[in-house]
Amino acid sequence: MAEHIRDIRLVVLDMAGTTVADGGLVERALAAAARHVGADPEDGIDHVRATMGESKIAVFRHLFGEEARAQAANKAFEAAYAELVDGGEVAALPGAREAIEELTAQGRTVVLSTGFARPTQDAILAALGWQDLVPLTLCPADAGGRGRPYPDMVLTAFLRTRAVDSVREVAVVGDTSYDMLSGVRAGAGVVAGVLTGAHDADALRAAGATHVLGSVAELPGVLT
């Protein structure tokens, strides 16, 4: 494992719950989306919590079945989340920006990925002033439409950055079991879970985490 850590040159970081404080914003926006399509916000909440990290349209397809209803819920979710962002309710997790800057200073390429749609991701980046913090940001649509737990966003980061020669030189970091599964399926050398978001250490390890960290602030030290 030490050899893998020493060779890590590309770091793919999740956003909400990993580098960005969630504070229940995702669940609040999901509840608004459910009400928009006439559903009880409490229906399916266990599924929502279990699948944190998955692309939101995939969650709505599971919950509502009908494509038109799922798409309507997804648009309502994006609008509700954007309103929360505009209201100043999104913030970076302590030490997250500093960790990204330190990883970059170490000579590593950092990519930010999310299960949100591009407009939501861009709104978060703008609110945090992170538009130029990393060379590449990815949402499911950038990787063919499939979000986590598929490995597509990780592999897209690998292909588009050309920062490394092997997937074993990639670290994938997130707060959910779906983040861990995407890293495992991509063949990443390091798959690190953080305890600042949706899932606990047992869930992260069960999904294949090679490391469990208190927060992303610990990552630069671990990779060194």
Automatic annotation (TrEMBL):
<dbReference type="InterPro" id="IPR050155">
    <property type="entry name" value="HAD-like_hydrolase_sf"/>
</dbReference>
<dbReference type="InterPro" id="IPR036412">
    <property type="entry name" value="HAD-like_sf"/>
</dbReference>
<dbReference type="InterPro" id="IPR022468">
    <property type="entry name" value="PhnX-like"/>
</dbReference>
<protein>
    <submittedName>
        <fullName>Phosphonatase-like hydrolase</fullName>
    </submittedName>
</protein>
<dbReference type="InterPro" id="IPR023214">
    <property type="entry name" value="HAD_sf"/>
</dbReference>
<dbReference type="Pfam" id="PF00702">
    <property type="entry name" value="Hydrolase"/>
</dbReference>
